[in-house]
Every structure is written in structure tokens, then in C-alpha cells.
Amino acid sequence: MKEQLTLWREAEKKKRWYDPPAKVKVRTEKGICHMHMEFTLGLPPKAAYDVLTNPDNQSYSSIVNDRELLDNISRKIVTNDGTKMVVEAEKDVFWNIRSWSRPIPITLLIEENYKDLSVVYMKKKMLFMKVFDGRYKVEPVYVDSERLCKHKLPKSREEYRKCSSGQGKIASKVTMDQYFQPSSFFNLPPLSWYIRGITIKTTKDLVQDFQITSLAIRGI
To answer: 140: closest CA among 123, 159, 126?
Structure first.
């Protein structure tokens, strides 16, 4: 990871990497909203995974109305077998619904799989939500393969390192599926429309914050 971050920081001095906005698809079935997102982070997968799982419980989010969009309150390890870890995380998410604005407390149970850089999460407590769970996975993107590997598509990091003579940068593709459903009282229009819209917008804003954080890590 240190070698990759050095490559990224040197490359940024010549030409800045651009992470496009997340691709988002949303559909609702049987009252449950499914949001599928794909986005990139200009970081090697392990660094991107650390940003997303946030092992140090740092704040990466923007400030909205003098409040952090996502405030990490606490992070407690429940189990850890060396390859998988279950964490109980308490967070506050700032919501603004017309004249009503306040942080919404959330407690999540999160299973982190270091081996394949994936995460599964589900709500333990969350105001307004009956269902709030999902998963995401970080995969490598060999961004310099066309330039350094003679149009050969590497099948592994080792193959990429060899064909690029160790000079190829690896970015990260994040695929995320999130499922949510407002609790009974709030699952009726127009409240359900507001909650769905705010949940989607907040998630997209957080992804943008992660992309901005990756800029900072690359030294921009």
C-alpha cells in the first residue's frame, strides 16, 4: 500500500486523477428501497477500504449547517478472528427535512472481511427506519494497464506489477447495495418520499466526501 500511495502522489504532481460522481440506480419493491451504487476512489484497495471502514473512527464528512454530515460517535469490536471482524458502530447522520433538522442516531452491526475487502452491515437501532442494511465491496482497478502493459488486461496484482515494472497505479472500484424501508408511521406519502429522497441524497453526499478524502490522502 505504501508503494502504491507513493506512485499516486508522484503521478498527481503531473496530472490529477478524477473520480466521477457515483452511478446510482434506485428501485422499490414490496416497500423496500434498493439503492445500487458504483463509484471509484483514486486510492489502492487497502487504503480505500480503510477510509470506508474507518478503523480510527475519524470524521471524513462535510459540514452542513454547522454540523458534520456524518459524525462517528463510537466503534466497538464485538468479535475478531483475524480475517473477519464484527463491529458495533454508533453514528449521527445529519438530516434536514424542511424546517426540521437534527442529527439522527444510528447503531449498526458491521461485519468487515479483510480477505476480500467486503462489508456487510445492518441496523441495530435507527430512528424512522424499519429496514436499513446493505453491503459493499472494494475491487482493484488497474488504471495504467493500457499504457504500461501493452493493452494486456492483468488478471492479478502480481501480473500487473510485472507487466508495468512496478509503476502501475491501482485504483478502487466500490460496489454498494443498500436496502432501506421507513418504519410504519413514516412509510406513507409524503413522509416516505422525503425520507427516501434524503437517504439517497445523504448517501451520495457521503460518497463525494470519501472521494474528497482520497484527494487529501494523495496529497492534493
So the answer is: 159
102: pLDDT strictly greater than 80: no
The number of folded domains in the chain is 1
DSSP annotation of 147: H
**Inter-residue contact 91 to 72 (CB < 8 Å):** yes
What CATH number does the domain containing 213 carry? 3.30.530.20
- How far apart (Å, rounded) are the C-alpha atoms in residues 121 and 112? 9
The answer to whether the beta carbons of residues 63 and 69 sit under 8 Å apart is: yes
Question: 84-93: long-range contacts (C-beta < 8 A, 24 or more apart)?
Answer: 84/111, 84/112, 84/113, 84/114, 84/115, 85/111, 85/112, 85/114, 86/110, 86/111, 86/112, 87/111, 87/112, 88/124, 92/68, 93/69, 93/202
- Mean pLDDT computed over every residue of the chain: 91
Domain that holds residue 196: 2-217
- Tens digits of per-residue pLDDT, 115-150? 999 999 999 999 889 999 999 999 999 999 999 998
**Banded pLDDT at 66 (limits 50, 70, 90):** low
